[in-house]
Amino acid sequence: MQKTDKDEKSIIHLKSLPVKNAFTFGKITGSTSEELVEEKSFVVEKIERSKKRARNRKRTIYRKLEIPFERVVHMSVDHGSKVKTVNQTHAWDSINADSLITSVPGLALEITPADCHPVFITNREGNILALIHAGVRSLIDGVIEKTFKLLDEEIKKINYFLGKDIKRKDLMVGIGPGICAKHYSVKELALSGELKKERRQKLKSRGGVDDLRNLNLSPKRMLKSDLLREGILMSNIVETDYCTYHSVNNHNGEHLFFSYRRCSEEEESEGRNLAIASL
User: Distance between CA atoms of 164 and 133, rounded to whole angstroms?
Assistant: First the structure.
């Protein structure tokens, strides 16, 4: 990850991801941001819970990214492992899923997570794009495996009709901010019986448990383990270490992101973050 002075403004540029435009992660301070004009592929922003205000904030982002709002497909997360392909007929629609895939140029995919990692997958030439809601439940249910299974089918079509030779090892992955293991304990769920033994075993076997005593989970560790299992090269994974729970703005000390877990523990209004990308 290449850091610049913009990091102090809560903007992170993942320059090493070789796509048409650089992915950007972070809270965009203020109602507008000139920094976004040249960064058109991916952004995560802190948005308010108020539907009207959130809608206006999102449209401000669309304008800065030069994405027509009628070309945006919203993912309404299912907290499972539903994977769907979308095209121009789904524009300005809300799709119930945990992973969306498209090969339509100019069609944008968006998600509004709170603590779960938004994950984007593309190839070097930008022929295909996948957006994944990488929460623990989704990861346990196999959302990564199911996404790659459908990606393979779409890539075969692209290779056939466009004369490409895209392989899994060519795919690039961008992992956005999510909650870190330090702030993600499910000990209470385990003691109450809500976290079943079978799921706990899956978490341990896939590297998701960071602290065995307190059952602190590391969704990112699980995610990277799944990506490597699917044949993605570690050198093709670009990530940010920002945590939605504790990362703050170095200038004013404000939290960079909304966090569902932090909001449930402290007196703070609930909200969502925004992740959006287009080919």
Answer: 28
